[in-house]
Amino acid sequence: MRVYIESYAPRIKCKEHGVLVVKVPWARHDSDYTYDFETAVTWLTLHTTMQDVAEYFRIKWDTVGSIAKRVQKSLESAAQSRFDNLEEIGIDETSYKKGHKYMTVIVNHKTGHLIWAHKGHGKEVLTGFFKELTEKQRANIKYVTADGARWIADCVKEYCPNAERCIDPFHVVAWANDSLDEVRKSAARQAQKDAAEGKKANRTKKKTTPKYKSTPC
């Protein structure tokens, strides 16, 4: 059975802020949807595309993004600061669009949560993250995992000098494989060079060896 619940929500017109509606306990400010509906929409965006969410809930495509932003803002304002109690963080960059567009992401290893993300990569971008932390929060960081990028090492050394840098296993294995590949190529080139020099030496030896002819008695 479909049930409709109606409620009277007074509206006022302010010269500065325009038309405003009284706060209601089932919806967020400036929203046409209930808390439960927006929570369901946001949850589904984590598991499928925005277009699929829009078709499933029969709402506009851009409305999905607006709902997700409202829910995110509400959760962040109510939750504990994501920068508190940071001890082990991971720093990396990842591509998010075609055409070599990258973003820098930072995770809290203890909770497994993403705590910071920003378009672009490099020292300037990463510096923005460390400047958002207080001196106490920076001093509390004990371990930083990342690849061997110089800009990451410089930022960690400047803002978290007491933290221990940990190179992630993926890049360690990749560097080891690259080194082995270079040794293999060098050994193959040397073997080809030695073989070519050996053939040249044999040809030279044959040319310089005197030939004797037998004379009949």
Spatial arrangement of strands, main beta sheet: 5-4-3-6-7
Main β sheet profile:
5 strands, mixed
Order of helices and strands: EEHHHEEEHHEHEH
Mean pLDDT: 86
Report the CATH superfamily of the domain at 88-170: Ribonuclease H-like superfamily/Ribonuclease H
Report strand %.
15-25%
Q: Which descriptor suits the 3D outline?
A: elongated
Radius of gyration: 33 Å
Explain this structure.
Helix content is 47%, strand content 19%. The protein has 217 residues and is α/β, with parallel strands linked by helices. Among the domains are: 11-76; 88-170, Nucleotidyltransferase, domain 5 (2-Layer Sandwich). The strands form two sheets. It has a five-stranded mixed β-sheet. It has a two-stranded antiparallel ribbon with strand order 1-2. β1 and β2 form a beta hairpin. α2 crosses α3.
Task: Describe the SSE topology.
Blueprint: E1 11-14, E2 18-21, H1 35-45, H2 50-57, H3 61-78, E3 88-97, E4 101-108, E5 113-119, H4 123-132, H5 135-140, E6 143-146, H6 150-159, E7 164-167, H7 169-208
Parallel strand pairs: 3-6, 6-7
Antiparallel strand pairs: 1-2, 3-4, 4-5
Helix pairs in contact: 1-3, 2-3, 4-6
Q: Key terms for this structure?
A:
217 residues, alpha/beta, Nucleotidyltransferase, domain 5, five-stranded mixed sheet, 7 helices, 7 strands
